[in-house]
Design goal:
The protein folds into 4 domains: 93 residues, no CATH class; 111 residues, TATA-Binding Protein (2-Layer Sandwich); 96 residues, no CATH class; 85 residues, no CATH class. It is elongated, with a radius of gyration of 38 Å. Strands 3, 5, 9, 10, 11, 17 and 18 form a 7-stranded antiparallel β-sheet that branches. A 5-stranded antiparallel β-sheet has the order 12-13-14-15-16, with no helix packed on it. Strands 1-2-19-20 form a 4-stranded antiparallel β-sheet, covered by helices on one side. The chain is 36% helix and 34% strand. The protein has 441 residues and is α+β, with helices and mostly antiparallel strands. Helix 3 packs across helix 4 and helix 5 packs antiparallel against helix 7.
Length: 441
């Protein structure tokens, strides 16, 4: 009794009007998530939405797709699709496979098509069956009645559509519960753990037994000096010693192992290491600025109480410019090259750069991709027409009726071919019968 009550309650979700209403709510939430920037700081919303920032924060509009109410709406829509699939689509598919023999014309409520040469005293069930089989129909016979169909796969398409949407929404829910996103800015040669968490699901966890190292970072430049691509060499270690994976990554070419993915997102120039004299080392921070519209990095070092020299870097593959306090270029030097200023020796030992990485674990993304694959597959399957043909014997002829759910012109063409093949077989078999009869006589 309780199962019947629960099933009747769930079947209300399969109502078309309810499903459309829930789908419109999901669309509205997606529009909100597209209009309002997601996952920004509180000050960002306070500055850009001074009249509505409190409403945005309280309702969770700054992270629409990770709110409890969006997950609840998605679950309701998933239930609606599943109930509709099991209560309507699958029984309809099962019913489409049943043999439907008829023996009178009043049974038909569909569009009817007729054959020209079937009204004949010499009609043959064998010929009509063979003609239908040649047109790729599945044929069943019982008591002078034929039933045939083709294109049953077209009836599966609605089931596939429901399953694909369900998979996409379930993948989104899995991403909400199990995924996490970490962003790090790591200097070359440094070992790091995952700690700068941007987003984490309720049931996500960080792999604490893994450490990561940035082996190298470099940039490829175009001939005009613009950046073509930048690369990072990464290594992943287990318990500090076992190398799990190593790869040079770039934009759109991440490092993937197990469920963890490393994306190359950004980079920056941090500092320059300088050897002054024989044994004195100094590390100076580089400040990003622009000169004549070109990005560059600038640092300075004091020679005495009144004088300074400046180091200017335009790109990592070019020379460093050494300038005085008036901006006059004194020298162009390379990394590792020794040069002298005021009888003091200098060597640029290294330019320290950092790479920007985004580390992401999202087990739901494979479910989402699988859902879209099923949806694409169902699109192709839906082009298959489901056609049915009924033929039964009357007093002096065969009665024919056919129907199709789409592509009526192609179905009419099949009927024309059926008529021609049936006529061809009928005429030739009659001729052969007469010939054999004459020979016997």
């Amino acid at each position: 009794m309780s199962k019947n009550v629960i099933w009747k309650s769930l079947k209300k979700l399969a109502n078309l009007n309810v499903a459309i209403f829930v789908l419109l709510m999901i669309i509205f939430c997606c529009i909100l998530g597209s209009i309002i920037e997601q996952d920004k700081s509180f000050s960002y919303y306070q500055f850009n939405y001074p009249n509505y920032y409190l409403l945005i924060i309280v309702l969770g509009l700054d992270h629409v797709f990770r709110t409890w109410w969006f997950i609840l709406i998605s679950i309701i829509f998933i239930l609606s699709l599943l109930v509709c699939t099991f209560s309507t689509q699958l029984p309809s598919l099962k019913n489409a496979r049943r043999w439907k023999f008829v023996y009178k014309k009043s049974v038909f409520n569909t569009n009817q098509y007729y054959l020209n040469n079937i009204d004949d005293y010499d009609y043959s069930f064998t010929n009509i069956i063979y003609s239908l089989i040649r047109l790729n129909f599945f044929v069943f016979s019982k008591n002078n009645s034929l039933y045939s169909y083709k294109g049953l796969y077209g009836r599966i398409a609605p089931v596939f559509v429901h399953l694909s949407i369900t998979a996409i929404l379930l993948g989104s829910v899995c991403s909400f519960l199990l995924s996490f996103v970490v962003q790090e800015i790591v200097p070359i040669g440094e070992v790091f753990h995952l700690k700068n968490i941007i987003h984490s699901g309720f049931y996500s966890y960080l792999p604490s037994d893994m450490i990561f190292r940035v082996n190298d970072f470099y940039i490829n430049y175009n001939l005009n000096g613009s950046i073509q691509q930048f690369f990072s060499s990464l290594s992943v270690y287990f318990h500090n010693y076992q190398l799990l994976s190593s790869k040079i990554i770039s934009v759109n070419k991440p490092l993937r192992f197990f469920s963890v993915t490393f994306y190359q997102t950004d980079w920056q120039v941090d500092a320059v290491r300088i050897n002054v004299g024989e044994s004195y080392f100094v590390q100076k921070k580089l400040v990003k600025t622009d000169i004549n519209g070109k990005n560059c990095w600038l640092s300075s070092i004091s020679l005495d109480r009144t004088g300074k020299i400046f180091f200017v870097i335009f790109n990592l593959d070019d020379h460093l410019l050494v300038c005085n306090s008036e901006g006059v270029i004194l020298q162009e030097v390379d990394v590792g090259e020794k040069f002298y200023i005021n009888n003091s020796s200098f060597i640029i030992k290294d330019i320290i750069t950092s790479t920007g990485l985004q580390v992401k674990v999202d087990p739901g993304i494979f479910v989402v991709y699988f859902g879209f694959f099923i949806m694409i597959l169902s699109t192709f399957i839906s082009y298959s027409s489901y056609s049915q043909v009924w033929i039964y014997s009357s007093v002096e002829s065969l009665e024919f009726c056919g129907s199709t759910n789409r592509a009526a012109l192609f179905f009419e063409q099949d009927i024309i071919y059926l008529d021609k093949m049936y006529s061809y077989y009928l005429v030739h078999i009659n001729e052969q019968t007469i010939t054999i009869y004459n020979i016997l006589i």
